[in-house]
Amino acid sequence: MKKTLFDKVWDSHVVHSVDNGPQILYIDKHLIHEVTSPQAFAELEERNIPLFRKDQIVATADHNVPTKDQHLPIQDLLSKKQVEMLSTNCEKHGVTLYGLGHPYQGIVHVMAPELGVTQPGMTMVCGDSHTSTHGAFGTIAFGIGTSQVAQVFASQCLLLSKPKSMRITLNGDLKPGVLPKDVILYIIAKLGTNSGTGYFVEYAGDVFENMSMEGRMTVCNMSIEMGARGGMIAPDETTFKYVKGKEFAPKGEEFDKKVAYWRTLPTDEGATFDKEYTFDAADIAPMVTYGTNPGMGIKINDRIPDINDVSFEKSLKYMGLHKGEKLLGKPINYVFIGSCTNSRIEDFRVAATYIKGRQKAANVNALIVPGSQQVAKQIEAEGLQEIFEAAGFEIRQSGCSACLGMNEDKIPAGEYCVSTSNRNFEGRQGQGARTILASPLVAAATAVAGKIIDVTTEIEEPEPASV
Amino acid sequence: MKNQNRQAFKEMEKFTTLESQAIPLPIENIDTDQIIPARFLKATSKIGFGENLFRDWRYGKDNTEVADFVLNNDTYSGSILVAGDNFGCGSSREHAAWALTDFGFKVIVSSYFADIFKGNALNNGLLPVQVKPEMLKEMLAVIKKDPSVQILVNLEEQFIAVEGTDLREDFKIDAYKKMCLMNGYDDIDFLISNKDKIEAYEASREF
Ligand code: SF4
Prior knowledge:
Radius of gyration of chain A: 21 Å
Number of strands of chain B: 8
Structural class of chain B: alpha/beta
Largest sheet of chain B: 4 strands, antiparallel
Number of helices of chain B: 8
Bound molecules: iron/sulfur cluster
Largest interface: A-B, 74 and 59 residues
Number of domains of chain A: 2
Shape of chain A: globular
Oligomer: heterodimer
């Protein structure tokens, strides 16, 4: 039978199928962080269950850590307690922790791939919905709740019904200035926020084939924003090259053996999907969102649509925006470049290339938050830090930061923030904060102009004179 | 179901039928950030999240109650929440399910549930009942007209009905999950009872 990439990885991890019921799915790698693990550890202890496979767990602290003075004790007592509890639990149960201050620490979906923890053909879970990021490697990776974290602790397995499959094909050439973030915002705007519920998505076509691993991670990251549990991209030479030589990647002959296996994973020609969509790359433009879910996105030059619906209107009211209004030219005081969607080195390279020789606008607070300690180091080593600093951007230490406003990095009520993160929900970046999702290029340009501008028209013009 | 590890066995509250008034919340795409905002996720136990359920809709910046939010309206009460389409999207935080159960909800009715939320709810004895969009609309209208109307949720026979009306709809639930809810079992018990199979799988793997 012809199989999809998803089928191949899923079927090879089924331990047992319950008659007329779910399947027991084996999990290769379990990533944990401070926010969704304490209650799972507590549950194990309460029920006197030992950890089943501690060596398959990787832990880091990211959601709730400060991004300033990470060497000092955490000021917020509740945050401190939560981060300390992760250390205590890991120590007690023998789990490897890359905690605050460790050179491998970072947002769980940034640090695991860059360490080679993430590899093609694996099953991976984490108590975090953006675990879908790791699907960029041809991995079945998805977010789980804390009860399931406890289940994986106890058995390295989950009880699941196999999701349906969807393929989204995108062929053609992307216009200059259109980034992977725009691609996924475009797809979600077209399909809506619950189009993927019950499905696992495979992204196919030459746009994804030509995309870097960083770009593929950005796309897969936001699969959950259309409701899909996860997204995948077939592993290829780009994938193998990225994984090779990484800290925890297989080495030497072992690596070659794995690659031979990974090459068998792509979807068979003629395999069928439960749902298929096709888009044309040439239709995609830089995107911005105007509402309070990631599906409420438009091309940067378009106007907010006129939809008569109570929830839609409630959303616009929260955003302080009107039907028919353009976002282009909108003054913006806050810019956030970070989060597991866009805080990899490539994202900062794109931003720095634009920013070089320019200054941020006086009205803008521009925050750069690397996804991991390694990315932070790279920013420095490549000279990007100087560019950001010279332009007046503030560079912080790695963590989730203003993506979810759990620590003190928050956007004030009523303010707009052009953000490279993945969620524009009400209050996501702070109570009353208004999030506009965009690519790192649009974010960088907004910071410089102090308002939303169309970068593509600029790029097509002759190089602007450096300031 | 065999259970090798007796100590591991913990009973969840059993669910069979429920009859209650309902609280209407006809907003679409209610995400888990709304159900429980991130700043309340610092707790390390499962208790007490109900206090901050829908925090930013329930309370203003100055911590006073928002008068027109339904949870602050004495007209409505009950352990059933009837919400708009695509309930529970966004973050995987199980804290959302804990906040809803801690507040006293036992059933959520919507025309669509996000995957992770649905799983989290079921793992906490909170029953997500998916009805057709028309049924949802009619239910909301009836509740609005008569807030004291009783809603009957029968898990065994898998139907939901609004008393005194002919509104009644069957709902679907995974047979295994239904068995768990009705008996108060959870997945850990089942997975641990299959350890021999899991170990055999590990031993048989080439990759
Ligand atoms: S960066 Fe944001 S979306 Fe990503 S894991 Fe952290 S909080 Fe979640």
